[in-house]
């Protein structure tokens, strides 16, 4: 089939799919240099989400599209923008993903590097921010993902809302309110935020995913807007991150209004109490809770969590919670009882005696488990060093027996990993293929012990695809390549967090 496409003239289409699949910046840069066809395909892919790289030099490229009038405004701040507007590509038109925080970060860096005085830096930042959005709109950028802070710049939000073509094809909308503390806002300021949030949601025609992030006092009005929006037959995913469900009484109405909703995610949310859970139980359709992360909060009630898991545990795929929570052992038992489809398990904090309940949970999950994070926070080291050493040893001696035959990601950030315990782990997990293995530190006085253990139990048996250790292993990079094992920097491999993983996968 691929051959027929090539001969029928569909090579660019195939190249586009291949390059998207690679999803690697360095590879795309290399593709630019092959020939014109490859360059024309690679450039739009590189510029879909340009500000996520946090390279402030990209601001210059976009400002080339400024009008003569705008260039005069820049000159008033001592900014000379005499470069030609005739670029090979219309870069602003390629933007598909835009995070206003990433954009502001790049602008601030650009202002610092460009302006010799900080006296007018704030005004210059605001001007650049406004000019760039005008450039994006004028060049018909068509966003698919938009993360916006409402409340930071009301004039800018008004500009965006007045040019609905810029955002009405967004598939993934992430709304965050600035400032997070609404107590200091006047009623007028609150009303403007509510109005802008409502209009932003109601302007959507093809929205598939919405993310309410840290919106606190404005969650009720945001959900009300969603209930009255045009998204009932398009929205498939809702994420709630760091929000308080207290006084939210319309969840049932909202969920029942959404006809194609496939996944709901609650991460670091508060007030999951009996009143809120009762709303969920009263919903006359499945409540497809795919992700649940319970943070360190006294607002969680065991009975409420049990009711939630009875209703939705069969759908739960991603779970994590902080072991500082007093009811953590009971929570583990509830997850083991009601949730059989867990794929992602994150266990930060101080595990203590609850580690055996963790083993029971991993065993019950079985072959479904794809991602496992066990992390000891540094805040406990000074107080529980001896106990953490024992728990680290227990984990390494027992965990391997409960792992599935194949796991995509295993991250062990333990307090004290001895070579002896690490060898026991490697031996007991010898049947498991680990796509990405991350270990923070192996304690050994002999620098050859770790490479010898890796050679014996992992490398020659081809049991991993990627290795990430805080210890420097890059001197083994070429040798391991011959076994199709890639050494990566530990911090490049480690997931940035539960929220980011879920946001990427759904």
TrEMBL record:
<protein>
    <submittedName>
        <fullName>Uncharacterized protein</fullName>
    </submittedName>
</protein>
């Amino acid at each position: 089939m691929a051959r027929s496409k090539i001969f029928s003239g569909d090579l660019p289409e195939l190249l586009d799919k291949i390059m998207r699949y690679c999803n690697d910046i360095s590879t795309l840069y290399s593709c630019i240099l092959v020939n014109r066809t490859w360059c024309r395909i690679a450039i739009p892919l590189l510029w879909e989400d340009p500000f996520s790289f946090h390279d402030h030099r990209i601001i210059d490229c976009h400002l080339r599209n400024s009008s003569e009038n705008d260039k005069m405004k820049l000159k008033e701040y001592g900014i000379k923008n005499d470069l030609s507007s005739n670029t090979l590509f219309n870069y602003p038109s390629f933007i598909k993903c835009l995070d206003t925080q990433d954009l502001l970060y790049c602008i601030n860096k650009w202002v610092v590097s460009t302006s010799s005085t900080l006296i007018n830096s704030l005004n210059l930042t605001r001007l650049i921010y406004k000019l760039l959005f005008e450039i994006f709109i004028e060049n018909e950028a068509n966003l698919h993902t938009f993360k916006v802070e409402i409340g930071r710049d009301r004039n800018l939000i008004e500009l965006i809302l007045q040019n609905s073509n810029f955002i009405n094809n967004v598939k993934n909308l992430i709304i965050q309110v600035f400032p997070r503390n609404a107590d200091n806002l006047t009623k007028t300021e609150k009303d403007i935020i509510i109005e802008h949030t409502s209009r932003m949601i109601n302007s959507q025609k093809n929205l598939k995913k919405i993310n309410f992030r840290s919106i606190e006092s404005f969650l009720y009005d945001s959900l009300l807007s969603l209930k009255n929006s045009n998204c009932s037959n398009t929205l498939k995913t809702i994420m709630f991150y760091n929000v308080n469900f207290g006084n939210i009484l319309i969840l049932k109405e909202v969920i029942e209004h959404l006809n194609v909703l496939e996944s709901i995610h609650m991460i670091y949310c508060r007030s999951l109490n009996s009143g809120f859970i009762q709303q969920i139980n009263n919903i006359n359709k499945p409540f497809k809770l795919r992700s649940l992360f319970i943070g360190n909060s006294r607002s969680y009630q065991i009975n409420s969590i049990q009711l939630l898991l009875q209703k939705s545990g069969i759908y739960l795929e991603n779970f994590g919670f902080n072991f500082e929570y007093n009811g953590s052992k009971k929570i583990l038992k509830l997850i083991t009882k009601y949730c059989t489809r867990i794929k992602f398990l994150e266990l930060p904090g101080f595990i203590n005696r609850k580690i055996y309940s963790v083993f029971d949970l991993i065993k019950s999950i079985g072959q479904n488990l794809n991602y496992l994070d066990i992390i000891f926070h540094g805040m406990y080291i000074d107080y529980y060093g001896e106990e953490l050493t024992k728990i680290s040893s227990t984990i390494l001696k027992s965990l391997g027996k409960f792992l599935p035959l194949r796991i995509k990601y295993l991250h062990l950030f333990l307090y004290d990993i001895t070579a002896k315990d690490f060898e026991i782990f490697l031996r007991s997990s010898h049947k498991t293929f680990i796509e990405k293995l991350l270990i923070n530190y192996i304690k050994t006085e002999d620098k050859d012990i770790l490479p010898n253990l890796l050679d014996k139990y992992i490398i020659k048996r081809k049991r991993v695809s990627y290795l990430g250790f805080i210890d420097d292993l890059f001197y083994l990079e070429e040798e391991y390549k011959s076994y199709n094992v890639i050494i990566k920097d530990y911090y490049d491999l480690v997931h940035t967090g539960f929220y980011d993983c879920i946001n990427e996968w759904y």
